[in-house]
Amino acid sequence: MTGNIAIVGLGPGRETLVTPEVRDMLAQATDVIGYIPYVARVAPREGLTLHASDNRVEIDRATHALQLAKDGARVVVVSSGDPGVFAMASAVFEAMQAQPQFAGAEITVMPGITAMLAAAAAAGAPLGHDFCAINLSDNLKPWETVARRLRLAAEADFAMAFYNPRSKSRPHQFGEALDILRGACGPDRLVIFARNVSLPDQTLNTVTLGEATAEMADMRTVVLVGNSATRRVGKYVYTPRSAP
Amino acid sequence: MTGNIAIVGLGPGRETLVTPEVRDMLAQATDVIGYIPYVARVAPREGLTLHASDNRVEIDRATHALQLAKDGARVVVVSSGDPGVFAMASAVFEAMQAQPQFAGAEITVMPGITAMLAAAAAAGAPLGHDFCAINLSDNLKPWETVARRLRLAAEADFAMAFYNPRSKSRPHQFGEALDILRGACGPDRLVIFARNVSLPDQTLNTVTLGEATAEMADMRTVVLVGNSATRRVGKYVYTPRSAP
Fold first, then answer.
1. Of A198, A232, B87, B95, which is most buried, counting CB atoms within 10 Å of its CB?
2. Residue-wise burial string across B218-229, b where 16 or more C-beta atoms lie within 10 A, e elsewhere
3. What's the mean per-residue pLDDT of chain B?
4. Closest residue on chain B to A17 (Cα)
């Protein structure tokens, strides 16, 4: 194998959040692979082939990247946010492990600004103490695993960030998640719905768990839940550095 | 108040990980405030005053930033990594809330690449499924809170990232943390010690919990612990996207 793969994070959307090293890696690529809206963020140029694919074909896409690299290409796999957070990096390593012909593939992962940290920055500092990140989709794990993890995270008094809280194919589970949290944390806990984070049409909606409804989230929303000490000051929401 | 404050993340150390918007904000600042080694990363120039202070004076530093902004300065508070993850953002909001003369301060938080995501990228994708971030320092919370949170995080089968695992003033607690994790997760769980992440002298040491010792970490180390499915493929460590 003479080629290589970089799996890079484009950040949540605003171009000023793309790191210089990711920008440089894209400038050197022969092939860029990813989900349609992420590949659309890469400017076409001579010598660069853009391979855009639909959602939910991560392993096919990863295998394609590994094959192109094996054939000598300089491949960049693009993810939104950070590629190691509910994104393409794990998929590429899964595909590599499942297919022995790709043993020895040369892979570099380049971090990016993940959605929860951009959302937290936009709101203030709600993840300023111990926190967890949970993918609420049950595409790849049973819902009962998600529900159990939510209960334990609440018991541990973590601040929380939820990726993929709700989609058209899963309209009801996020309501269940809110019910679990209300039961564990009470109605006064602060919740931030951050939609289209870092883009010109970004919206932030801060409510209490008592006020939160499932309809406040969609697939373009990241949801942050404070810990028991999270509070407001002026228009900002933050979690103090000290206990809990 | 005519000035303003930007609280920005410089990333873990490599200059190619500083986002363009943070770079631009530094170029417009009249005053940069932060812990000595982070301020040392900002180039001096005419019209810019650098205010470097020692560790553990976060509230004094935050108050200084608020006062300079109140007097009309364009202040940038610098943190390593992301300013909202165990860094200066929460301290500034705490100082603002405690001192009514700073109500109405105009504050912008700009995200950065946090150490755990740079470490994860360097190792592969060990945080590729649900995960948590815990500050192991007991400067600001009782050790029993940390210990309890570790047990619950293990029970939830989160991958984990530990900031501030060990310092000269707290040499023993990290050993206790490893004992708790061995009890909860068994000896085969993968642990990554990532030191000086993203810098030329970065080291990655991947061992099992059975092999891990407290001496493998110091104050320049971020520690990642896999979940029950985290595995190796070639020289990489990753966590699959699917259950657990």
1. B87
2. eebbbbbbbbeb
3. 96
4. B19
